[in-house]
C-alpha cells in the first residue's frame, strides 16, 4: 500500500486564509483582534516560535504584541503584567510561552489568564469546558490534529484510537477531543506495560512523547493513520544515520544545517500506514494556524458575537 502524506503546511495555509477573512470582517466592524505573547527569558527555540507567532499574526491582520521579560522576572511581576493584559480591552488573546523559568509556578501563571483570553486553552476553566463538551478555547496542537483528520476526510466516530503521551498540552486534550468525536480512545504513557499491544490495535495512532523513533513498524497496524506530534531536533549525525538508515534526504538536510527535526515515528513505520503526518510539515505547521483561529474566536466570544459563523469552532 502506498501511504498518503497529510500535508500540514497546505491545511494550515487553508485555515490561515479563512482566519484572515474573519479578521477582516471583525476589523470592518471596528474590532481588530489583538494577540499578546509573553516570553520570559531567552530560550533560543522559544524565541523562534514566538517570532513566527508574531509574524503570522501580522500576515493575517491581527494586532500582535510581544512582551519579552528578563529570565529573572519574578512571579509577582509576571502576575501584574497578566492582570493588566486581562483588563486591556484591545487584547483578545494572551499567550505565555512555555516553558517558564523554574522559579515561576507555571500553573499559577496559567490560572491568572482570563479564560476568555486564554488562546492556549490551558486554563482549568477551558480544560473543564472541553471535558464536558461545552464551547471553549481548545489547545492549538490537538485542535490542529482534529482539523487535519477532518479536512483529509478521515472519520473518527467509532474508530479505535490510541494516544501515546499524557501531557496536559497534547495527550490529555487530544484524547478528550477524540472521545468527544465518538472514538474509542486508549491513552498510553511511560508506565504502560505493553505499549505495542495497544498501538497495534489503533486505526488512528497519535504520538506525542518526544522520543525520536519510539514507534517502530512492528507497533503499527497495516493501514493505520499515523499522527506524529513529536518534534525532536537531532544534532548528532550518528543519530540521524541510526534513525534514518539510507535516507539521503535527511542526511543532506543535516549536512546543510547541522541538525534535523524528526518525529516520534521511525520512518519505516510510515510504509505500513494508509496516511501519515510528516515531521516537519505535519502537525507542527497547524499549531500557529490554530492560535490565529483561537484569537479570532476569543475576540468574538468576548464581544458576545456568535462563533458558529466561523468555518469551525
Ligand atoms: N504557551 C505555549 N503555547 C504553545 O503553543 C507553545 C509553547 N508555549 N511553547 C513551545 C511549543 C512549540 N510550539 C510550536 C509552534 C510551531 C511549530 C511549527 O511551526 N512547526 C513546523 C516547523 C518547524 C521548524 O521548521 O522549525 C513543523 O513542525 O513543520 C511547532 C511547535 C508551540 N508551543
Ligand atoms: Mg503528550
Automatic annotation (TrEMBL):
It holds the Pfam family THF_DHG_CYH. Keywords: Amino-acid biosynthesis, Histidine biosynthesis, Hydrolase, Methionine biosynthesis, Multifunctional enzyme, NADP, One-carbon metabolism, Oxidoreductase, Purine biosynthesis. It comes from the Bacteria. Its EC number is 1.5.1.5, 3.5.4.9. It catalyses: (6R)-5,10-methylene-5,6,7,8-tetrahydrofolate + NADP(+) = (6R)-5,10-methenyltetrahydrofolate + NADPH; (6R)-5,10-methenyltetrahydrofolate + H2O = (6R)-10-formyltetrahydrofolate + H(+). Residues 139-301 form the Tetrahydrofolate dehydrogenase/cyclohydrolase NAD(P)-binding domain. Pathway: One-carbon metabolism; tetrahydrofolate interconversion. NADP(+) binds at residues 165-167, 231. The keyword Amino-acid biosynthesis applies. Residues 6-120 form the Tetrahydrofolate dehydrogenase/cyclohydrolase catalytic domain. Catalyzes the oxidation of 5,10-methylenetetrahydrofolate to 5,10-methenyltetrahydrofolate and then the hydrolysis of 5,10-methenyltetrahydrofolate to 10-formyltetrahydrofolate. Belongs to the tetrahydrofolate dehydrogenase/cyclohydrolase family. Homodimer. This is Bifunctional protein FolD. It comes from Terriglobus aquaticus. The lineage of its organism: Bacteria, Pseudomonadati, Acidobacteriota, Terriglobia, Terriglobales. The gene is folD.
Amino acid at each position: 500500500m502506498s501511504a498518503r502524506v497529510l500535508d500540514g503546511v497546505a491545511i494550515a495555509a487553508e485555515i490561515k486564509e479563512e482566519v484572515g477573512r474573519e479578521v477582516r470582517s471583525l476589523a470592518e466592524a471596528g474590532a481588530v483582534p489583538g494577540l499578546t505573547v509573553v516570553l520570559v527569558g531567552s530560550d533560543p527555540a522559544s524565541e523562534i516560535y514566538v517570532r513566527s507567532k508574531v509574524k503570522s499574526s501580522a500576515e493575517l491582520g491581527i494586532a500582535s504584541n510581544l512582551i519579552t521579560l528578563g529570565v529573572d522576572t519574578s512571579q509577582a511581576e509576571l502576575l501584574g503584567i497578566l492582570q493588566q493584559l486581562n483588563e486591556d480591552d484591545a487584547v483578545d488573546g494572551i499567550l505565555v510561552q512555555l516553558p517558564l523559568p523554574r522559579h515561576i509556578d507555571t500553573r499559577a501563571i496559567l490560572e491568572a489568564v482570563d479564560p476568555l483570553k486564554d488562546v492556549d486553552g490551558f486554563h482549568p476553566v477551558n480544560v473543564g469546558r472541553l471535558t464536558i463538551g461545552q464551547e471553549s478555547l481548545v489547545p492549538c496542537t490537538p485542535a490542529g490534529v482534529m482539523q487535519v483528520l477532518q479536512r483529509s476526510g478521515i472519520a473518527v466516530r467509532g474508530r479505535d484510537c490510541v494516544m501515546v503521551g499524557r501531557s496536559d498540552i497534547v495527550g490529555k486534550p487530544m484524547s478528550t477531543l477524540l472521545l468527544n468525536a465518538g472514538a474509542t480512545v486508549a491513552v498510553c504513557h511511560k508506565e504502560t506495560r505493553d505499549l505495542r499491544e495497544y498501538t497495534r490495535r489503533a486505526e488512528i495512532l497519535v504520538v506525542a512523547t518526544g522520543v525520536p523513533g519510539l514507534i517502530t513498524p512492528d507497533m503499527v497496524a497495516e493501514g493505520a493513520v499515523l499522527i506524529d506530534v513529536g518534534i525532536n531536533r537531532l544534532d548528532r549525525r550518528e543519530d540521524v544515520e541510526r534513525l534514518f538508515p539510507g535516507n539521503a534526504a535527511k542526511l543532506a538536510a543535516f549536512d546543510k544545517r547541522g541538525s534535523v527535526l524528526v518525529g516520534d515515528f521511525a520512518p519505516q513505520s510510515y510504509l505500513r500506514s494508509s496516511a501519515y503526518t510528516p515531521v516537519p510539515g505535519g502537525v507542527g505547521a497547524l499549531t500557529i494556524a490554530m492560535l490565529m483561529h483561537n484569537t479570532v474566536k476569543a475576540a468574538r466570544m468576548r464581544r458576545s458575537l456568535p462563533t458558529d459563523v466561523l468555518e469551525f469552532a
